[in-house]
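Onboarding guide, step 5: your first structure request.
Type a short instruction followed by the sequence, for example:

Predict the 3D structure of this protein.
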Amino acid sequence: MPKKRYNFTKADIEFRRHIEKKRGKELTDEEFYKFIEKQKEWFRKYVEVVKKWAIEKPYEAEQLKRLVDSWEEKEKSLKFYDELAKIKKLPIAEIEKLLTPILEKFGYKNLQFSKPEFGRSIKVEFTAQEAQTARQEYGSRIGLQNLIKQSLFRTNWKLMSEGISYRLGFLQGCLIGIENEDDLKELVKIRNNLLN
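The system replies with structure tokens like these:
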């Protein structure tokens, strides 16, 4: 009598390996086929019971749906809140310590901050000088802009959207420091969208 052939899917084979590992022994094709059929039958019956329950008890079914939806939402949000927790909330002195050596390494010197402007967030204008006189205006502005954006990516500070201006070797821009939790969440969303 010829051996019966089973058409297992890739998912079936992965599930089989999981079951075999759990049981500590290999299953024959026939044993695994019978096991899958029992699982399918159990699942069909379970679905029928749930459908019947949902019809007979719509309020409870709606409550259960909301609970499951909230679990799914929390799971989706978990990555977002992990990213939010990684944001370093730095005072301006730490930002100066962070930026100064990086800028000097790439040919910008004399980083200085002006008096802050207080509002919902803190705005601080800054200036720096181009130390590489052969570098053209465009390269100087874009280079500094990219350095600052990359350096501040995991912090509560960002470069204002106007970017960097350049005049006779002086570069000027403005940083925004964020303290408010809602604003920090918005910052993380924007940065995550940039990565995706």
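Each response can be followed by summary notes, for example: The CA atoms of residues 146 and 163 lie 10 Å apart.
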